[in-house]
Amino acid sequence: MNFSPTLVVPELFQFLLIMALFIQSLGNRDWEPHVERWLPFFAGLGLFVSIVSFKSSGVMFYDVYKLDALSQFFKITIAAGFFVAVLNATRQPTLEGEKRSDYYMFLALSAWGLMILSSATELFTIYLALELSSYSLYTLIPLRAHDKGAAEAGIKYILFGAVATALALYGLSYVLASQQTTYIAALATKSWAWADAPMAVVGLSLFLAGMFYKLALFPFHFWCPDVYQGTSNETAAYVATLPKLGAVVILVRLATLLKPGLEITTTLAWLGAISMTFGNLCALAQKDVKRMLGFSSVAHAGYVMVGLVAGTAQGLAAAAFYALAYVAMNLLAFWVISRVASDGRNLQLDDLNGLYKRAPSLAFSLGVGAFALVGLPPTVGFIGKFFLITAAWNQGYNWLVITLAVNSAFAIYYYLSLVRHAYTEDTLTEGAAPDTSAFSVVGAGLLAAVVLVLGMIPAPLFEFAIAAGQGLMH
Known about the structure:
The chain has 20 helices and 2 strands.
């Protein structure tokens, strides 16, 4: 078993962080307030470690763990998302004081599972890493003081997650029985046509269902709006972003098995089209902001499918880049939601009325996030959709590209309603005043800057993603 600690420095750093949080959670309760003093610094250091380690490459543990451009791309994104999620959660008003160390420990454990998932290249390893990241979320989602809706959200996520896990494991057994291997590199040499290997196609479809559940792709989306609405704003910010990265990185690896025109590829295309249409139409009717973003994520899961079915390195790169864009856009949106709802309540659209007067910097940042989610220039949402469209055009799924364009037009109404309420409605509703501290304003400003800068200068990251995609296709 080949193992080199220098190749897995980000994972080892994250593991040490988990151990430190575990020790703190076992210690005296007087230690609880101190966790929010040191953890953001070390989470930021973890991001630095991931960036420094981006050139690491190699395989370990009997070739089930691979360090390549794709895994490093996603590990940097996961570390960045974890850093922002930790900062966001330090102002969480609905988390009881004695549970703070436990909360951050499970948050770190989930991110560690996603890092492992990024490098997993064998189906059993993928399954175990997915469960490691998921079990932590089962604990986090109900942690919202004195709120029965959070308990309901937790139960739904656990029950539906158990079903998706069972489907994935059942499908894995079919793939193993039919193709005699669970290594993705070996599976790429096999036929995935229904006529040649019907059992393998059924098995892979069931295994993909587990990924679709994490991604909230139709018809595995039903948990998403309820969980976003039920859990705390800060937990929803994490659930809405980083687990999607884990699903996308595995789907990108598994997409190398598929070619345009195969039955399973066409099925993915249809699921993507239905998902983006269903998600956008349902979001049009929502008044709860988090529930709206829940249905929005169903639509964005459909957008990612456009890159995956293209069957080219550029398509895989576009899907990976769009996953990064999605994380940046949603972290910005949820940061503003968390700061506006300074008492931890769920925001309705009317709660945003007159935000430009009460907190102009938050209103501007919300506008940037909304424009990015629609896909308007010069944001990262626009360039992300542009990469998806150009990658998939003339690859046999032009109808799916047109569906994406039409759905982006649908999305304009409900995303820009956030801006309309913030800037044109003056009837104020009752509730706590927005948090306008330097922490709130600087955080929103930096995230908005990331969304704009990645939209205007996407080349360095997209070239990194292209290199990752080409590495997978060879």
